[in-house]
Amino acid sequence: MAVFTFTNLRAPAMPTRASLSLKVKYELCVSIQRCGCFRYSNAFHVVNRGRVINCVPAPSQSAAAAVNGVSGYTCSSSCFLFCFSSTDTNFVLGNAQIVDWPIVYSNDGFCKLSGYHRAEVMQKSSTCSFMYGELTDKETSEKVRLTFENYEMNSFEILMYKKNRTPVWFFVKIAPIRNEQDKVVLFLCTFSDITAFKQPIEDDSTKGWGKFARLTRALTSSRGVLQQLQPTVHKGENVHKHSRLAEVLQLGSDILPQYKQETPKTPPHIILHYCAFKTTWDWVILILTFYTAIMVPYNVSFKTKQNNVTWLVVDSIVDVIFLVDIVLNFHTTFVGPAGEVISDPKLIRMNYLKTWFVIDLLSCLPYDVINAFENVDEGISSLFSSLKVVRLLRLGRVARKLDHYIEYGAAVLVLLVCVFGLAAHWLACIWYSIGEYEVIDEDSNSVRTDSWLYMLGETVGSPYRFNVSGSEKWEGGPSKDSVYISSLYFTMTSLTSIGFGNIAPTTDGEKIFAVAMMMIGSLLYATIFGNVTTIFQQMYANTNRYHEMLNSVRDFLKLYQVPKGLSERVMDYIASTWSMSRGIDTEKVSQTVLQICPKDMRADICVHLNRKVFKEHPAFRLASDGCLRALAMEFQTIHCAPGDLIYHAGESVDSLCFVVSGSLEVIQDDEVVAILGKGDVFGDVFWKEVTLAQACANVRALTYCDLHVIKRDALQKVLEFYTAFSNHFSRNLLLTYNLRKRTRHGEDRPGV
């Protein structure tokens, strides 16, 4: 197993991971601005603030290092990750194999600290001699150079200059990074600003100050630094929480389109019918509606009087919630006949009064409260019990909002199962009512022994008895719980066409109802469970298509005997692309959408798809809407897998590439001369050159990358038409790496 050696870095002993088959040299992932990472494969080893995590000493390498007089710990080549926060760590990486150790990567923290753009420091010396000035100590700078020449680890305090020529004291730490042959391949240089803890720098601007002035400046500077350092943690946490809250509430800036219609202004106390609160409230009303649809038929059929205080309170709370829903409906927008959102309070109230107000009001009357009084006459009590059926009008709330509930396949599945169970419950209540009406003949004061209720009582040991000494009426019979369970069991077996026959209709009324129930059951069974099959097929359609595609690709690779390494790359790419696109053929869908949509809408979609490029690069800030739309129509999105070559050395450079995500390496003469990440640009300055350039290096993807690419001819066409933007674009666009210019080893190469 190949290993990397981090000299003089402490590390806890942790087991290493085996190298995977992906033979990528190393990768610098810049998926977020606060993190840079090198890796050899798919596992990670971390170096955080000078400490190596998940690394162990390799016996062979430790022995070799001891022979060479070098101490250090080793890290598996399966991965190589630097994790530095841009807020407290500023670093650059230099190639130790090239003369003058050119910088191949600088993080955002260093760029912010020095004032240089990343493109301006790429290929400059890792000694940062371009930041030296007249007050830089020559002896210290010579020590820095010797540290690089001798491949040593060292630290220095050195005065350097920012881009605006402001002198700054830096604490610089230099650490060489070795490969499996114990050869230094990279230098890691970290920078810390320690100006506040040094004496004031006396240049031309500070000469002539008195001792008191210098002392006052030093105290003020130190106090300012301490005030900044003290609340760093808490302030950072608050800002992070606030930003996360804003991102959640606004669904993230990346999700919202750049060009969109102005959000309609609604009057105060008006609720949008599509807002999150109203959607959640509608689901609560749906659940309570099903509760009402279950309890009302049961109470009416079994003639239960709500003497139980608990159930009376629950039903009263439900009634109050439905009354609140009526109030909310008076303040909720609706969609008008022309498709517009009506937010005028008067129109909303008139519309609700003309449509569902009366039905909703009748379903909310407190029938249980009136029926609960003991002194209510039996006839009036029966009347109010029957009026409870009016509450079933609440199902109209579900009917008019059905389009909101069936947007998702899982919700439709749950609703269909609930509807089937609700139908069985209703039929069970009716089945009991028929049996209870026919089991006792009040005219002859006798019991019908062929009734299913009588036979159920005999079976469960609770037969009907005639009270001779008292009321001289039939009493007893099975309990209500047993009766309801048996009724539900019979209706379920009938609706599903099973029918065991242990409970069967015997009287004429029961037989007529059983025939009607079988007809209803066959219709419900075919409708509901037929839709269930369709829903399951739709839910797993993408998964089935994915597995079919994988099988086809495997057969193709096997048929043509594609090498194992390439086969694994192909399969890995397909899996990654599928997970990102969620099973959607993005190219086919995008072409279809762009063909269907009119030109104006098509341009808006393209601007949205390329919004990250337009927002991140200052060269596009002064572009007009028309210019952005013209550029967006010419951009193409490319998804690259690890190991893919975007440019081969010697190829014509006919495109300008913007890195949106992922990382790439630029290789010249088998040496890494640059590592590109999010926000970087590479290609050629077409607007300054007449001839078509040849790529002087290979550009290879290290991770899965998303590139936004625009062709040379298309870009020149837009720049020729928009002259004002062309001047601004040519001045402000900095290429992180210009593929036209070959890197001269040992010379600083300024950004383009």
UniProtKB/TrEMBL annotation:
Q: Which GO terms describe its cellular component?
A: voltage-gated potassium channel complex
SUPFAM superfamilies reported for this sequence: cAMP-binding domain-like, PYP-like sensor domain (PAS domain), Voltage-gated potassium channels
Entry keyword Ion transport: yes
Segments spanning the bilayer are 281-300, 410-434, 483-500, 512-536
Q: Give the matching InterPro entries.
A: cNMP-bd_dom (IPR000595), cNMP-bd_dom_sf (IPR018490), Ion_trans_dom (IPR005821), K_chnl_volt-dep_EAG (IPR003949), K_chnl_volt-dep_EAG/ELK/ERG (IPR003938), KCNH_animal-type (IPR050818), PAC (IPR001610), PAS (IPR000014)
**SMART domains assigned:** cNMP (SM00100), PAC (SM00086)
Q: Which reaction does it catalyse?
A: K(+)(in) = K(+)(out)
Q: Where does the UniProt annotation locate this protein?
A: Membrane
Name of the featured protein:
Potassium voltage-gated channel, subfamily H (eag-related), member 1a
- Species this protein is from: Aldrovandia affinis
